[in-house]
Write the structure tokens for this entry.
Amino acid sequence: MTAKKNISALTEVNGVDQPEAVSSSAARNLVSKRQRSVSAQDLINGIFDGNITALSRAITLVESTNPEHQQKASEVISACLPKANNSVRIGITGVPGVGKSTFIEAFGKYLTGIGKKVAVLAVDPSSSLSHGSILGDKTRMEELVKDKNAFIRPSASGETLGGVARKTRETITLCEAFGFDTIIIETVGVGQSETAVHGMTDFFLLLQIAGAGDELQGIKRGIMEMADAIVINKADGDNIKKAKLAKTEFGRALHYFPQKSSGWMPTALTCSAITKDGIPEIWEIVSAYLTLTKENGYFEKRRSEQNLEWMHEAINEQLKLNFYNDGKVASTIDNTRKNVMEHRLSPFSAAQELLKLFLGK
């Protein structure tokens, strides 16, 4: 008698074939859509038609360092320029922890509440090690990000000093062409070369806090000379008295700085981004500044100067891209770097050799 073979419950038996985990046809469609390149004209039309997706894609395009994207980005920028220059550009800076994101959300919500269309260009610091950024400003501005009249675009600062992104000027142009009448630029507040953000905005606002040390230490910084207004944030709860005292000290200090070429006398205010106290008064100050500078001609003069600065930046950026993308430089630079690191070649001599190679001399 033949013994009956035991069959384990785990034994696999022939049955119906399992379906694919991912539909091959769906995968092909997804890949084809991703590979489909949107033309410059499509992006331009989308921006003019108020398509927020087109605006986001155009900003991504101008931020790209891919040489193939540069020509398309240039076309988009050139088409948007005639519709630009119709907004107020406000730069906001301050040390980390001063409450910039909370303030901008409260300020932005106030502006949309009075009929403004607000674009916030928030710059996050990039890691010097991983070169990555968290880009968490949308998370911190939960209410403003849901506002249909607001747009928040976080960008990485990269290697750019001054707490601004590499293509912030171009992004401003795109947002203005889209129809945003108030552009807020939030810097990372690093204290390095803050003239960068001052050089691309109409009104420069410096956020400060009281009770964090000697307020006079803040007065020593050169950034004070660039500020059109100083706002003491977090003026609520037990901090109100300290904030008012700080406002008085900063207000007195402002009178010791040289007269601004704009004819504007900077002022100090207090506000609370939590209670919203002082927020309307800040917009009144900005409006008064705009009225004065437009009447005395400084506003247009400053915009013209900023265009020249933009041209010089564009030249420097393009030269840098062309240099590192040059075939002869690319094939030599690794070995040159090695010689510099091993002290066989001085940094200055190495730079001279690479530049001669690039220029064909």
